[in-house]
Amino acid sequence: MTIPADYMHPEMMAIGDSLYQGVRSLTIKNGTNQLSAPALAAEALGIRHKFSCPDPKRPILVNMEAWLRMLPGIDGIKQDMAGNVDYWFARPASPSGRLMFENVAVASSTIADLCSATWQTSDDYLRALPNGTRGKIKKLTFDGLDLAGITLALNTRFTLNPSGKAAFKQLSQVDLAAARKPKRLLVNIGANNGLWDMAFGAKAGARMVFKADLRRLAARLQALPAEVEHIYFNNLALPSTVPNLMPLPDMVEWDEANKPGKGNYYRKYENRFGLAYGSLTGAQMKTLDDRVALANREAQDILKNTFGTDRRLHFVDLAKSMTKYDAKHQRRTAGNVIKLKNNKTITNVMLNAGLFGGFRRGGTQGLDGMHPTVVGYAIMAQQVLAAIKRAEPGANPAKIDLDDAYSRDKLLNNMPWIWNMGLWLWRDIRRAQAANTPEPIGDADDAAVRDVFTTACLAIRTGSKK
Fold it and tell me: What pTM did the predictor assign?
């Protein structure tokens, strides 16, 4: 295997999952990929021109934000999906002609995937799909299909080897880093090993399952060549700080005087968005927070023990930054909200639009309450850059401007009015399904919302499913 010289020794590479690929609102597309946390960090370091991100010409199957604006035009949405399906199953190359990207994080990846998922494993999976698969997806019907697995395979195939070159078909994310030898490697992984079930599914019994896979990954990272001078590993946010898990009764988080306060919990929570409806008591939420906090400590221990005296490993405390901006549980202060120059306030509650559209509240995460907006990714990038400054005395990154991050976010600057109606309707549909009562669907418009939201939820891996 020979990698062209101009692809060797990049200043920085990134590996991981959706939180590094730049997913927003369950959608994998070029626009948000280019504004991912690693891309924003590269901008601040002055190396963005040397840090390429996946540039899909079309969204990889789902395009939730665009579809929301098309409602109730379900025929138009199906036509858009059909175009995406035909495009991606044809194995397209990068529109820019890149053989490889510097950001090779793949949405829905687990810890194991970083070492095992390749162009070849993905292509084999897609070739083994039953006849009629493409037709079913085009019609938004998925009986017997794993849409999450299909989306993951299409994304992996493009992101790891967009040219489809035979020499690179067997390379995983870690293999690419080992072969290309970047100066810095950014790593964000673990959410799909349990946190997703907790925060998207509101599953009280969810646990972090990661130790064996992390030991293998840690060994691979420690074995990276000496040219990889620094490895920055992110920890995981606590479930209670994730916007999708909202307290009940509805709107109780508006009562500033009676918020539970730091380290305390509301009596009950629900997953405001998700595939199936779930709810948690405050005690269950605390247990989930404790499980993730323990997993963060255990992950650090595994990595430290593996690296031993190798001082290339550095930790990025994303949990700390998410807790800092937890205005959901604490009275709002200048320290736990982001006050922009346009007088808008960014918090970690579920994203809401105004009565006639436009941004109203929330803002750290997109429509799914799980994946960040550009502002949310900028906060992640700030933490990464802080770690880089501590580890590399010569590094002098520019300060990330959160006002600028807001201005670059097309969702926050153009929130569709239908979002609030759709969000509450989808919540009520899932509640009814959980209670085994008739779904509260009144007309074709409501059914269209259900079909779109179901499709979007199905397209992203739920938990550690393989």
Answer: 0.97
For residues 375 and 135, give the distance between their C-alpha atoms in angstroms, rounded to a whole number. Answer: 37
Average pLDDT over residues 129-154: 95
**Per-residue confidence (pLDDT) for residue 462, from 0 to 100:** 59
**Separation of alpha carbons 294 and 459, rounded Å:** 29
The letter for the amino acid at 311 is R
| C-alpha–C-alpha distance, residues 217 and 211, integer Å | 10
Q: Are 271 and 201 in contact (CB under 8 A)?
A: yes
Spans of all domains in the chain:
10-458
Closest CA to 18 of 164, 152, 210, 124: 152
Give every CB contact of residue 282 below 8 A, 6+ residues apart in sequence: 260, 265, 266, 267, 268, 269
In whole numbers, what is the pLDDT of the chain averaged over residues?
A: 96
Q: Which token pair is 160?
A: 């790891």
115-140 as b/e, with b when 16 or more CB fall inside 10 Å? bbbbbbbbbebbeebeeebeebbbeb
Using one digit for the tens of pLDDT, what is the confidence trace for 249-261?
999 999 999 999 9
pLDDT tens per residue, range 414-423 = 999 899 999 9
DSSP letter string over 329-364?
A: TS---TTTSEE-TTS-EEBSSPPEE-TTSSEEE-BS
pLDDT for position 464: 46
Strand (E) or helix (H) holding 313:
strand 313-316
Tell me the C-alpha to C-alpha distance, in Å, between residue 163 and each of 82, 93, 157, 167, 417: 23, 5, 9, 10, 40
Q: How far apart, in whole angstroms, are the C-alpha atoms of residue 25 and residue 14?
A: 21
User: What would the CATH number be for the domain defined by 10-458?
Assistant: 3.40.50.1110
Structure tokens at 193: 């090993």
Residue type (1 letter), 172: S
What CA–CA distance (Å, rounded) separates 300 from 411?
35
The tokens describing 268, both together, are 């009950």
H/E element holding 149?
helix 147-160
Rounded to the nearest 5°, which phi and psi values hold at 284? -65, -40
